[in-house]
Predict the structure.
Amino acid sequence: MIPCRATPTLQRLAKGFPILALTGPRQSGKTTLARAVFADKAYVSLENPDEHAFAERDPRAFLGRFESGAILDEVQRCPQLLSWLQGLVDERARMGDFILTGSAQFDLVSGITQSLAGRVGRIELLPLSGSELTAVGKLPNTLEDMLLRGSYPALYDRELLPGDWFPNYVATYLERDVRQLIAVRDLSLFQRFVRMCAARSGQLLNLAALGADCGISAVTAREWLSVLEASYLVARLPPYHRNFGKRLVKSPKLYFLDVGLMAWLLGIRDAASIQTHAARGALFETYVVSECIKQRFNAGQGADLYFWRDSAGHEVDLLFETPQGMQAIEIKSGSTFASDWPDAILKWQKSAQEAVLPPVIVYGGGGNYERQGCRVIGWQELQDLPAPSP
């Protein structure tokens, strides 16, 4: 197992909450992490037909087996357990008693809100971060290899090629999760929708245009997009508008949460083609944004990341708050610093009406240095990015 940055967060939350909820996309390592951190606890998967039937038939007896607590995997498959858990943990008053994992955010989060409010410490686990791969010497040597492979653990702890793993992952996701969350009559149409979302990663989200391109209504596009979000495949980045006088865009931007999956959905099958591919910039931007989201999630925080764009088209790719002020990040896929890269981010800095930190440019080259009033960080040094405020 590759050591996970979320481990200290999980251990910290276990000291203050009787129940921990570990959510994230399928195959992101949730079960592996839970079993490694809480190796002394019993493990039960509710995808096991016998365990699932037992939990539904007699939830009191099902939970009564676990005097020392347990890890309940894919617990959203048996939502009535959450109500029984409430009474049990209140009675035992023991921290870190039960660990719940799930990959369907809708069902699990709604169940937690209704039955377990105030009793659950929640952490969201995305695929491996670049810093986690670097720590064990498994970060790909080239940016193109990183963008092609992505970050799912299976591609780093097994002898698997992205072209062999991703099609099976997508097929399994469509067959299992989508059918459970929404009634999709035509799975091929939904798969086309997923591919169209991949083609729009890093762009402003226009649901009407997205739906029209897929042959569905804007209402259906909104519903299907919410399923992708609930499954941790995509995220929306909201615009930042506080303390700025100019007219700003109001639409969010759409991002995939794993760049390897995005690349596969775009039909990219080898690393060499990424060097000249039209989506290279979007792929790199998606990678950097997803890395920043992982940094937040691994610390047990919400994303709280933004972008900024005014009506004239001036844009800053990422903004977030720190205790010292706003941090702005510009993302450039080129491997050689260009003198005009700081223009947009310095323009934003002048218009900001609050405390701001020296801006950062993340690029496709290497190193960590100062240039033209900006800190320049290479893609392999993303762990050196300033941390957002807790």
Q: What stands out?
A: The domain at 130-239+251-282 is CATH 1.10.10 (Arc Repressor Mutant, subunit A). The first helix runs from residue 7 to 13. Residues 169 and 247 are 42 Å apart (CA to CA). The first strand starts at residue 19 and ends at 23.
